[in-house]
Structure formats: C-alpha cells, structure tokens
C-alpha cells in the first residue's frame, strides 16, 4: 500500500515508513534528497535504511540517516535536520513511522526562521499537531522562563473578550486577568452598516483599545501563535509564553478577502465596496449617492458569517435612498445569496419580502460569488440547481457590495481547540470546551449554532464569566446559553425589523409584542439601533453592566 506524502513547505514533504515503490513515486515527483528519521529495527514490517538507500540511489537521490527515538527529539537532532535542508535547494522528503518525528524536527529547525503560527498551521494542514513543539521553541527563546501567569487569560479584545473581562472583574475584582490582542483600535462593527447608509460617521464606530481595557486587567499587546492546552499555555508570536489557570478564547473570525478571485485588487475602486471593513463603508455611501442608473449587486457568501443580515441590510438602505431620490426605476438591484433562503428564521421573511418588492430587487439564491474583474466591472458566480449541478453566471455591475467568505482565524484552525471545521469546539449551552475543562469560548470563533452577532456576545459574556467563577468554587451554579442572537434588519431609514432568536430559530423577543413586534418594521427598533445600542455597547456591555443580559443560573 502506497504511503501518503504530506507537504510542509515548498521544499519538504514527509510521510510514514517508505517502501521501494514509494521511493520510485517520490523520484517521479522530483524529490532529490531523502532523510530517514526512523531507527532500523523499530518495527517488524519496516524496510531498513540500507534497502531504501539502495533503491533511492537508483533514482539519483541523496540519502541521510538521522534516526530519532520516538518521543526523544533532541535539539541536536533538529539542528542536523535543518542543516540538511539548508544545504540543498532541491526537493526533500523525510520519513519516520508516521511522519510525526520528521515534522517535529522540521518545526524545531524552523523556529528562528519563520513565525510560529505559520509553522503550526503548516503542520496542522499536514495532519500533525505542533502546539507542544511551539511551546518548546518559545520556552527555549525565553530561556525556559514563562513571561507571566494569570488566573484567567482572554484571547481577543473584541466585544466578546472585553465584555467577559469586565463581567469577571465585576464579580471578583481580586482575580488576575490578562487580555491578549495586538490591535490598537477597537471597532463597533454593528455600526458599519449605518456608515454605509450615511447615518453614522466612521469615527463614531472606533475607540482606542487602551481606553476600553477594564481597570485592573493587563493588556498583552501581541498576536497568538499557538495554544498548548496540555500545559495550560498560550504561545505568542516572538516566542513568549503566557500561562493560565483558565482560558477564554474570543478572537473573532477571519474575513477571507482572498477567497474571491480578484477582490483584493479592486476593493475600494471600480464600484467594488463592502461594509465589512471600516475604511470601505464610507465608499459604500459614496457609491450609493453617486449612482443615478445602472445595476447594483449585493452578495452573501456561504454560512457561517458575522451578522447574517448585514448583506441585505446594505441592499435595503441603498434601495431606500434611491427610492427617496426618485431613481429606483433606473437602478436594477440584484441580491446574490450562496444560501437557499432570504433569512434563516421564517417568521421575519414576510416583512423582508415586502421591502424586496418595494425596491424591485431580484433575488438569486444558491449563487456564490467566486470572482470579480474590477476594471471590466464583471462579477462571476457559481450557481447550483436543485440537483446539485453547477454552472457559471457572469453579471456586469455599476456597483457591487461584497461580503467575503469567513472562517475561524488561522491560529484557531490549526490548534487542538478546533473542531473539524476549524471553530473552537464548545458545549453550546455552557460554552465550555468539550475536551479541555479549563477553556471557554464565545463570540464569532466558537462553533455553537447561534447567529454571530454582538448581541449574542453580549449574552454570552456574563454566562462565561459566571461559569468560570463557579468552576473556581466562587459561584453558586452553572448558567446556560439559549443561543440568543439579534439582527436589527435596517429595511429603510427610520424602520427596522428586529430579529431576535435562539437555537433552532426559536423567537426570543426582548420586548412584549404590544410594545415592539420584531416581525414587523418598527420606528422604535430603529431608535433602539441608532440611539440606544451604541451607548449600551460602549458604556454598558464593555463596562460589565449586564443590562437585559443577566445569566440564568441553575442553583446547585
């Protein structure tokens, strides 16, 4: 049976034990150097190094015997391995029993040559967990000394991370807490839709990070490279180690702008914009104001994404402006959704459809944006029919609002904390990690099947804070998350359909229907979005004030 060759970088592949047939296959792929990291006689079924070398030499390959006992990779072994790599520009293949020792040697040899996060990510893609090796590299750089140790370490200083720190401090001021985040600026991202609609100014949605870190919480201004949960350690870029008693993972998600061919090259020009970026939302409003006639496209990528209603919010606010300006009959509005429905909770669809009709918008489901040619102003979609057959659709545009595909951050996807899809694997009610009992996650990076919104994080933060303290023996019970999320759908300037729902699409309204019926457009919901939610965010949620977000606790 032929062994699987796994690529670590442009030069090196690794695998388990080779046979003569495998050597021939490697030669066909252009490999010129072989490294054997498995001692002879380790297994009854393995070919000896001499047998492999004899076959390799028939194909003009150089061979190196660098045997390492399983579990005993020494620094000198890694140095020798790295020397072989450095001395050749030709393709190299290394093997052992499973490829793990060879990958470990490579990772250790690259510790001072490339970022730890890239080392861990490349190994993870090949099927090898190098988080413990990353901690070893970091420990060597630090002289074996940990940088610091905390009761609670929080990765991410977005809405979820800061709110959790504030809720923890509110409950127990004495505990030591650190937040890890390299950003200088914190953004109120729900406000960017309003910037793109000409309602908010961009600067209203930004604050300095230093002004928002809760008092008594240390801010470690650095990027995370990897996690070593077996040793309760976070490894930072630059080879620093942070130890924790309990860990909260809340780094948000990654906007994969490169996931659409040509998008990066044309963003912010040629009529291509997105409210998913602070610097581009003003361009959305500029395009909306300047478009007098033509075709405006609005796209939505496959789920999950941050705020699933945001792609169509941009369409509604744009359509409302064009209608008010008397241009609606001269502008063709088209919505392209990679999914199969307008909105995932059916109770809100009738109200939304009335606005789709008002703005004469054409709905195109199962259409995924794959490419943009900015200079030609052409968007390419992959359309899928009911039988799963796909074909390509091209549409010219005068303006296009793009929402990029979204994933968990790379350092999460390559970590032992992730599920098969790359998101942090948690219990959906307690938000505790399924494998590591002293780790919790909330916000956009975890895998609970809730809407990824700031409103969800507002509910989750007090729950995580409560459950951490209970785990420390300082609380009275476990709190449970019901999947609450909120999406204020801005259907026109002055009215909002306030979608509030939990797991399974269950409606979870915050107000009685006689006061505010979320399934219908409401001026009160608009007032809440425009006037109330920003100060609730800045002065409430990020300060540990849990207005309408008190966790429900199961007393033990």
From TrEMBL:
Q: Which UniProt keywords apply?
A: FAD, Flavoprotein, Oxidoreductase, Quinone, Transit peptide
> From which lineage does this chain's organism come?
Bacteria, Pseudomonadati, Pseudomonadota, Gammaproteobacteria, Cellvibrionales
Q: Which organism is it from?
A: Spongiibacter nanhainus
Annotated Pfam families: BLH_phosphatase, Pyr_redox_2
- Designated name of the protein: TIGR01244 family phosphatase
Cofactor(s) in the UniProt record: FAD
Show where the FAD/NAD(P)-binding domain sits: 150-264
Start and end residues of each Beta-lactamase hydrolase-like protein phosphatase-like domain: 5-111
Spell out the molecular function terms from Gene Ontology. Answer: FAD binding; hydrolase activity; quinone binding; sulfide:quinone oxidoreductase activity
- What is one GO biological process annotated to this record? sulfide oxidation, using sulfide:quinone oxidoreductase
Q: Please verify whether the record's keywords include Signal.
A: no
The reply on keyword Chloroplast is: no
Q: Record's superkingdom?
A: Bacteria
Output the CDD domains linked to this UniProt entry: PTP-bact
- InterPro entries with a match to the protein in the record: BLH_phosphatase-like, FAD/NAD-bd_sf, FAD/NAD-binding_dom, Prot-tyrosine_phosphatase-like, Sulphide_quinone_reductase
